[in-house]
Automatic annotation (TrEMBL):
Phylogenetic classification of the source organism: Bacteria, Bacillati, Actinomycetota, Actinomycetes, Pseudonocardiales
All residue ranges annotated as the UspA domain in the record: 10-144
Family, similarity comment: Belongs to the universal stress protein A family.
Species per Swiss-Prot/TrEMBL record: Lentzea miocenica
Protein name, as recorded: Universal stress protein
Length: 150
């Protein structure tokens, strides 16, 4: 579903983590209460690429398309019953910087992102998207905790 022109917008970050799904659900609920549209954003990063760095270009493209299609399907499923307008946007780049840039472009009411209670080694190496967004954003940021506690 496409967002309405000139409507208030909530920007929500999405990846394949439980906290991200919780953030999407929270943002959808808030959007209804505030009469706002949702703009779901995914920053394409290393997790959307194949593990084998020596794979040929076709393998990389196929893997990337499947990963991105899977994420979009998750968003569509999560928002299937959402009566409000929403859009989905996936782009290359640092997810935190992408969320801040799009929130600025959309003049968002708020940015909604999931946050993890415990940091794995992989998350420590990549850095925290939620922490980066909270530091750099020019809009209010709502952090939604991982409901599984992982």
């Amino acid at each position: 579903m496409s967002a309405s022109r000139g409507a208030s917008v909530l920007v929500v970050g999405f990846d394949d983590q439980a906290a991200s799904l919780a953030a999407l659900r929270t943002a959808a609920d808030l959007a209804l209460r505030l009469g706002a549209d949702l703009h779901v954003v995914h920053g394409i990063d290393a997790r959307d690429q194949p593990v084998d760095p020596d794979a040929d270009v076709d393998t990389w493209d196929n893997y990337r398309h499947k990963a991105l299609d899977h994420l979009r399907a998750q968003v569509e499923q999560a928002l299937a019953a959402h009566p409000g307008a929403w859009t989905y946007h996936a782009a290359d780049g640092n997810p935190g910087k992408l969320l801040v840039r799009i929130a600025d472009e959309q003049e968002a009411l708020m940015i909604v992102v999931g946050t993890h209670r415990h940091r794995s080694l992989a998350r420590m190496m990549r850095g925290s998207v939620s922490r980066g967004v909270a530091r750099a954003a020019h809009h209010p940021v709502l952090l939604v905790a991982d409901p599984t506690g992982r």
